[in-house]
Amino acid sequence: MDPYIGKTIASYVGIAGALMVFIGTAFYFYFDKQVQKVTPYRQKIRTATATVQVTIMSDTDINTHFMDRGGYIALRKGRTLLLVMSSTDSWGRQTGKGEVIYRAVFNMDAEDPAVKKPLYSLKETDQIEIYYYSIPKESIILGGEAICTFNGTVRREIAISPQDTKNGICFVHNLENIFSDFIKN
Q1: Which end of the chain has the lower number of beta carbons within 10 A, N or C?
Q2: Minimal CA–CA distance to 51: which of 160, 138, 136?
């Protein structure tokens, strides 16, 4: 075989191979993004917010925006923190029925350790801890709700059952059905 023809054939094969690698890589990244859109639990955690409302038994006459007394909501596995959302402010309002409703909107810090972990990692959550600086330390919680939104698309509504606070902290333990569909697809 003529060396010039061999060199030409080798060049064409090399170019075709490089083109195939480029096309394969482009398809991989395109379809990976499409899969992540249909499987939100594989996406990495970027944002998390929670709107939490807790009703306590109290005759205190308030209708206040506590601009410097927020709190936090923490998702835990035992003693390990999985994700924390916090706020610098909260609201308290007497209902007129011997109840005060406390409300806050909590956000995850951009440098929280949960950032860049897959959303399905929150399936390990076995308790949620909620604390408001504005709620008296020894209170009777009549009930409430935490609405958590992850990455702006995955929403969970979590009921807060009646309980006595311990040092102002309330807990949610019954989470079997809350994160059960957080699976790795």
Answers
A1: N
A2: 160
Strand partners, 160: 144
How many distinct structural domains can be found in the chain?
2
Say whether both 63 and 135 belong to one domain.
yes
Instruction: With beta carbons less than 8 A apart as the criterion, state whether 120 and 182 touch.
Output: yes
Report the candidate in 146, 135, 141 with the shortest Cα–Cα distance to residue 168.
135
Over residues 20-69, the pLDDT tens digits come to 888 888 878 787 776 666 578 888 999 999 999 999 999 999 999 999 99
Nearest to 150 by CA among 41, 2, 23: 41
Q: Is 40 helix (H, G, I), strand (E, B) or coil?
A: helix
Q: Are 41 and 132 in contact (CB under 8 A)?
A: no
Task: Tell whether 34 and 100 lie within a shared domain.
Answer: no
Domain around 24 = 3-38
Which secondary-structure segment (H or E) carries 158? strand 154-160
pLDDT in tens, 137-177: 999 999 999 999 999 989 999 999 999 998 889 999 988 88
HSE, side-chain direction, 13 A CA sphere, residue 176: 1
Residue 148, both tokens: 């958590």
Helix (H) or strand (E) holding 100: strand 99-108
